[in-house]
Write a structure and sequence with these properties.
This protein is mainly alpha-helical. It has two helices and two strands, in the order H-H-E-E. Helix 1 packs antiparallel against helix 2.
Length: 68
């Protein structure tokens, strides 16, 4: 397995895990869900190392997102 394949596999596994966690969070506390989801995504984004410029990043599909 190449390093790129490994990174893509880990990304997909992590994405699925976080998605399930955030869905559960939204179901349990809909009023606070948006705030907590934004914080969680920002934390993961920074931990992945994509916040070095502090502004924009490009996802694998080519869309641009503003840093949270």
């Amino acid at each position: 397995m190449s390093m790129t394949d490994y990174i893509d596999k880990r990304y997909d596994e992590t994405f699925a895990s976080v998605y399930e966690e955030l869905l559960d969070m939204a179901a349990q506390d809909p009023e606070q869900a948006e705030k907590h989801i934004r914080k969680r995504l920002k934390s993961l984004y920074i931990r992945q190392g994509n916040d070095w410029t502090g502004s924009y990043w490009k996802c694998r599909s080519g869309c641009f997102y503003c840093g949270l």
